[in-house]
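Researcher: Good morning. I'm working through a list of sequences from a screen, and I'd like to move beyond sequence-only analysis. For each chain I'm collecting a predicted structure so we can compare shapes side by side. This is the next one on the list. No need for commentary yet; just the structure.
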Amino acid sequence: MSWSVGQVAGFAGVTVRTLHHYDAIGLLVPSARSHAGHRRYDDADLDRLQQILFYRELGFPLEEVAALLDDPDADPRAHLRRQHELLTARIERLQKMAAAVEQAMEARTMGINLTPEEKFEVFGDFDPDQYQGEVQERWGDTDAYRQSRERTASYTKEDWQRIQREADELTRRFVALMEAGEPADSEAAMDVAEDHRQGIARNHYDCGYEMHTCLGEMYVNDERFTRNIDQARPGLAAYMRDAILANAVRHTA
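Model: Good morning. Structure tokens for this chain:
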């Protein structure tokens, strides 16, 4: 069975002009011609075309493709092994590129328009982007989410450094209270929780007491947040949650 140049072009997603060029340079010479002199391609031709297009997709020049395919010492298994190695390497590169693009998209969504060096300088080994999917899924349609995006879109590295210093200071205050044996529902702990709520309202979005208690619950129900918060001191996430809840009751009861 054989196919015309137009049919092969349709199969392979290339132009007839491309097939004519491959024929002219000897890269893919059709196995037969019709009585009218038209090109006819058989199964072997299609196999070779598939190999050509594979190497072209990987950026090989036509001269190198011809040398690879016409190597008398190469067998089909050698081509398959080479293709597998090349594809594996390309997949790894593409995965890294995709991860970098996703990170950039998430950072843009959060309004964290910092370079990687600046983000490391501000946040250390904590990547604020890693929870973006969770945040968007849970609150993407809320006014708080939109308000946070609008506010943070113009933040500079210095703004984020200030916000991080404030967060670190709140963490130190919570830890100091825990080490001093202060209950989470003590006045001192509730005062720190209130400062925590006001910091969110000042820097990100209007954070009422109901919203604040939801955040507190997330700190203990999501192991990722718990693990990050508890790096400062084991049990800190639960202590913060309890202080936040007590503070909300104090102001809304």
